[in-house]
């Protein structure tokens, strides 16, 4: 038996894994899945990965997909040192935070920029997509002004994952040296490392596939450019759930605090995990009544200006998935919610990344247009294509629940709780047919009977109030 990686060169997430494999000097069998020929939909591959994405790893029969979950697993299992994914608790947490930033903000800024060209006959990357990319670059520049690498003062898997995305963006949009000097220096430092060579074939293939499409001289119609603005991409939560501007003094009485907004699904998942862990937390609710989500005091805590933000005695952490991992590892009396066993942990991580990169954007893309149009939050307000996207994800979830009562392993974990906050919000305005999704409905009902679901109910009420007061 051996380790096999299903990959396609042009896919940046597959290249992140290839680079980590090269950095770890692992021997891995490479199995090419030609996405151009839709080989990812072959039944045999779908059995391994119902979300039909590359990369997918098969480690002697243990299957894990999602590049970020894969690279974490590979370093933990096969790394001779922990350098790329440090075991030191706070360092590891910073890497986790950055991996979730990569999957939910940086990679989508690339994917959404190239999609109109690959699939909608656009002949240029729309300006608003370039703005999204620039917003991501600004974040990266900010992170790099704190540490030499993205999550630490040395190279980690967070850098390698971001590298595959940024190097692909560079094919059509250069990183400006004057605006982002630290990012440019980081890029050239990483490109000089030996493992970078395995990125090159994919960059070439992407260039060959993408650049000729830009050369056609058809003008894109206004209708084609109906994508979200950069601010939507990066800050769904702050826009809708904005923070009041008032002179704030962050004075606390307990050592662990959570800055939250009840209507935010991401914040609610953290609150539910805290409830299960039953330890004292000081909740600091942000006020919705004014729109200054960029109040300096919060930007200092979280340059990505999202809630929730955890403050554990001065250790500041944002990004809900990174927070819940941290909370269970640090405060959990058992590892039930976030298993320590490597393969179980990889499965939970896989689902958390799915949550961050697929489910959360699904909710965001459905809800933001309704919110902007000041329309009522109901199924009829959701465009048909969004409903189709939701349905195909519900089908995937039904597949995940095929052999287990819970999403990641055969018991409740943080993966279920994070998915719950998003799915119950989607379910608020879209019915999940019990005929089509029997297992998903069972799962939802099972979680609804848990004591922590009360938090979800309170939050959903606030969420719907927001729409009714528009
Ligand atoms: N979050 C996933 C994203 C993987 C992904 O979206 N891969 C794309 C290629 S860039 C893919 O396989 N697309 C084929 C499909 O969705 O059918 C990861 O990091 O692995």
TrEMBL record:
Domain GST N-terminal: from-to ranges: 1-82, 254-335
Entries under InterPro entries matching the protein: Glutathione-S-Trfase_C-like, Glutathione-S-Trfase_C_sf, Glutathione_S-Trfase, Glutathione_S-Trfase_N, GST_C, Thioredoxin-like_sf
Stored Gene3D superfamilies: 1.20.1050.10, Glutaredoxin (3.40.30.10)
GO aspect biological process, one term: glutathione metabolic process
PANTHER family: FI01423P-RELATED (PTHR43969:SF4), GLUTATHIONE S TRANSFERASE D10, ISOFORM A-RELATED (PTHR43969)
Record note on quaternary structure: Homodimer.
UniProt name for this protein: Glutathione S-transferase
Source organism (scientific name): Dendroctonus ponderosae (Mountain pine beetle)
């Amino acid at each position: 038996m051996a380790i096999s990686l299903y990959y396609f060169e042009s896919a940046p997430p597959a290249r992140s894994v290839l680079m980590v494999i090269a950095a770890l000097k692992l021997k891995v069998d490479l199995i090419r899945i030609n996405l151009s020929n839709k080989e990812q939909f072959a039944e045999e591959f779908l059995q391994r990965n119902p979300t039909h994405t590359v990369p997918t790893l098969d480690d002697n029969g243990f299957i894990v997909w999602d590049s970020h979950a894969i690279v974490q697993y590979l370093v933990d299992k096969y790394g001779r040192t922990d350098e790329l994914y440090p075991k030191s608790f706070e360092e590891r947490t910073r890497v986790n935070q950055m991996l979730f930033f990569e999957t939910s903000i940086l990679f989508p800024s690339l994917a959404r920029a190239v999609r109109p060209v690959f699939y909608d006959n656009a002949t240029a990357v729309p300006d608003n997509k370039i703005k999204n990319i620039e917003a991501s670059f600004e974040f990266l520049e900010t992170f790099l002004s704190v540490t030499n690498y993205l999550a630490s003062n040395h190279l980690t898997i967070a850098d390698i994952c971001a590298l595959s995305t940024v190097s692909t963006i560079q094919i059509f949009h250069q990183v400006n040296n004057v605006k982002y000097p630290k990012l440019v220096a980081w890029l050239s430092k990483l490109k000089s490392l030996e493992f970078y060579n395995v990125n090159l074939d994919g960059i070439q293939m992407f260039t060959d596939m993408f650049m000729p499409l830009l050369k056609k001289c058809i003008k894109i119609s206004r209708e084609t450019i109906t994508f979200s603005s950069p601010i939507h991409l990066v800050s769904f939560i702050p826009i809708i759930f904005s923070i009041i501007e008032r002179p704030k003094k962050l004075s606390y009485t307990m050592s662990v605090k959570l800055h939250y907004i009840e209507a935010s699904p991401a914040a609610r998942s953290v609150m539910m995990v805290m409830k299960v862990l039953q330890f004292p937390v000081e909740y600091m609710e942000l006020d919705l009544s004014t729109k200054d989500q960029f109040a300096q005091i919060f930007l200092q805590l979280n340059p990505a200006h999202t809630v929730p933000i955890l403050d554990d005695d001065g250790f500041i952490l944002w990004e809900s998935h990174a927070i819940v991992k941290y909370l269970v590892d640090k405060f959990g009396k058992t590892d039930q919610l976030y298993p320590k066993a490597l393969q179980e942990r990889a499965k939970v991580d896989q689902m958390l990344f799915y949550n961050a990169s697929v489910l959360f954007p699904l909710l965001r893309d459905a809800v933001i247009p309704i919110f902007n149009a000041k329309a009522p939050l109901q199924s009829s307000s959701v465009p048909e294509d969004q409903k189709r996207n939701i349905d195909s994800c519900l089908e995937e979830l039904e597949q995940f629940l095929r052999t287990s009562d819970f999403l990641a392993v055969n018991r409740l974990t943080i993966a279920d709780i994070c998915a719950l906050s998003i799915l119950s919000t989607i379910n608020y305005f879209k019915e999940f047919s019990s005929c089509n999704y029997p297992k998903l409905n069972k799962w939802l009902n099972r979680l609804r009977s848990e004591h922590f679901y009360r938090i979800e109910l309170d939050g959903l009420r606030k969420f719907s109030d927001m729409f009714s007061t528009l």
